[in-house]
Design goal:
This protein is mostly helical and about 575 residues long. It has 19 helices and ten strands. The protein has a two-stranded antiparallel ribbon with strand order 1-4. The N and C termini lie far apart (about 90 Å).
Length: about 575
């Protein structure tokens, strides 16, 4: 029986088969892929795997707050007038109506009171800037504490340091734009900072301000730097940072199935993209909530900038507080040569110190690689306790930073706590040197103690809180072995090797010219690793587990034995010696 297939399917029958012409969309996509390779790149990104851990969100907070900054910044540029031309204010804010001010300050008031949603956008923008710098700082601390800066990510660490520096400068140029009395005080201070630079300082100030301070060019120039120059550099560095993250693959915490050769996590689509997208809206929502409920930088209270006035209790945004604190507590050192004055009390804390701190941050990965001689690639993170010297170094830097930051508010501390500002200054001068050393020693010993605690748990198990009584009457706490997953995590680290200098001379008995550097490296390596507690060897683990099993067997009650402590009252049996006793019972 023949079937008429024409009713259910189309067929070319006797004609030769030919490919159908693709639609316009498919043709355009094929044209772009042949020239740009977008399909290949897209496939790789879709299959890209990202590990999951809460600490990885710190970098995302910095990224999403930067996006919020760009979005709100575009809105603000539509109404802000970066001009120092003088106008008489006739806006909605009655207290300043009729006052002469710059067009920049007048447009800021206009955004705050007359543009619908303008004040909300201003405050979201300012809060996002604070969050952006804070997230970058904490993210870099996480990277350093966990060793994520090691090979092959040294360049990304350098990029992160430059991003932190540029973010700080971007914040300074941003809060200087409204030309109110507070921001004008900051610009006045910046003028003094530049003039403290020997030889070229006065020229730098003259060219930046277009003449004597305050001139008529500083606000337009800061505006160009704020919306074009630094954002362009930030976008380029953020792009490079993200590309390197994708190229090197994301670091991950050690655990079962995780090695230096793989990444265990979720693919880009749909899981990670959905999570990252949702987190962006969370960051945006929290920032908008802060902008709507928490007032920040109320410029209408400060009034327009007047070079003859200074805002009482003036302080910069928090990320500029630590150099301000260094400036406040630095001794009044000056030198006079041939009629010229070199103000070391300004030049050293403001110009030199930030540069030195930046160089120290950039050099940390390379210094550690030189000390350890480690040239391997690392994709597994380290627990901070497993690198005591590194962790203590960052805590010392954090203590130094925090003390200088606190010194930046020495006047407000003195007023609110009814203390002498001179005594606070003298205390801070000593604390910035003593405090980091104390923090280093305490942190390093703490980490080593935690290493010792981990070793004991691996060998003898964890404490259960159950007190056992042996047949002989002795008491001991019952320990149970760690789970395989937990034990794997604790042992998934390399043993620290202390570099030792073999000889001061070469094979011919001639003094090696590099001996001095190698001797210094050996001393630093010994200081870095000599006191560390290494993970147990397989033999030690086996011996520890065997000893623990023996203890558990001795703790098992011996039924019916007189020494077992069983007492019979004719009805109920009471185990008085082998019963587990909870602490406190």
């Amino acid at each position: 029986m023949s079937v008429d297939t024409s009713q259910v399917a189309t067929s070319n029958r006797d004609a030769a088969a030919s490919a159908k012409k693709p639609g316009r969309g498919a043709a355009l996509a094929n044209w772009a892929d042949e020239r740009l390779g977008l399909a290949t790149a897209s496939k790789k990104m879709i299959r890209k795997v990202f590990p999951d851990h809460w600490s990885f969100m710190l970098g995302e907070i910095a990224l999403w707050s930067f996006i919020v900054l760009l979005l709100t910044g575009v809105f603000l540029t539509l109404w802000f007038n970066p001009s120092m031309g003088e106008v008489q204010y006739q806006g909605s804010y009655d207290q300043l109506r009729g006052i002469h001010m710059s067009e920049a300050y007048a447009s800021t008031l206009n955004i705050s009171f007359d543009v619908r949603g303008g004040l909300l956008m201003r405050q979201i923008h300012h809060w996002a800037a604070m969050l952006f710098v804070a997230a970058m700082l904490i993210h870099m601390m996480r990277v350093f504490f966990t060793g994520a800066f090691r090979k092959p990510r040294e360049i990304n660490w350098v990029i992160g340091t430059l991003l932190l520096l540029l973010g700080t400068l971007e914040g300074f140029t941003g809060y200087s734009l409204p030309d109110d009395l507070l921001s004008g005080t900051g610009i006045r201070a910046a003028d003094g900072f530049m003039k403290s630079v020997p030889i070229v300082g006065t020229y730098m100030s003259f060219f930046l301000f277009g003449g004597e301070f305050p001139g008529e060019s500083i606000i337009p120039r800061l505006y160009a730097v704020h919306i074009l120059l630094i954002p362009g550099l930030l976008l380029a560095l953020v792009g490079a940072h993200m590309l390197l993250v994708v190229y090197h693959k994301h670091t991950q915490w050690p655990g079962p199935g995780r090695t230096e050769e793989n990444v265990v996590g979720y693919p880009m689509l749909p899981v990670y993209a959905a999570k990252a997208g949702g987190f962006f809206f969370i960051v945006f929502g929290v920032t908008a909530l802060m902008g709507g409920l928490l007032s920040i930088n109320p410029v209408w209270k400060f009034g327009p900038y007047d070079p003859s006035k200074v805002t009482a209790g003036s302080q910069p945004d928090w990320y500029m507080g630590w150099p301000d604190g260094a400036l406040r507590i630095f001794p009044g050192w000056e030198s006079h040569f041939w009629g010229f004055t070199l103000p070391w009390n300004v030049f050293l804390p403001i110009i030199v110190l930030p540069g030195v701190m930046t160089v120290i941050l950039i050099s940390l990965p390379f210094l550690e690689a030189w000390i350890t001689g480690d040239k391997r690639e690392h994709h597994l993170l380290q627990r901070p306790r497993n690198a005591p010297t590194r962790t203590a170094t960052m805590v010392a830097l954090m203590t130094f930073y925090g003390l200088l930051w606190a010194a930046g508010g020495n006047d407000l501390i003195a007023i609110n706590l009814h203390l002498s500002i001179n005594q606070i200054t003298y205390f801070m001068r000593a604390a910035v040197f003593v405090g980091p050393v104390i923090a280093f020693i305490i942190t390093r010993r703490w980490c080593i103690s935690l290493q010792r605690h981990d070793r004991e748990k691996l060998l003898h198990g964890y404490e259960t809180g159950i007190i056992m009584r042996s047949p002989e009457g002795g008491y001991s706490e019952k320990h149970l072995p760690l789970s395989e997953e937990r034990a794997y995590t604790l042992t998934a680290r390399d043993r620290d090797e202390v570099y030792a200098l073999e000889s001061d001379v070469d094979e011919n008995g001639v003094a090696n010219p590099h001996t001095r550097g190698q001797r210094r490296r050996a001393r630093l390596s010994a200081f870095m690793f000599a006191d560390n507690v290494q993970k147990p060897t397989p033999e030690e683990l086996e011996e520890g587990h065997h000893h623990a099993e023996t203890e558990h067997e001795l703790q098992v009650p011996m039924e019916g034995h007189p020494a077992s402590g069983h007492e019979f009252d004719g009805h109920n049996q009471h185990d008085t010696k082998d019963a587990p006793l909870r602490p406190g019972h």
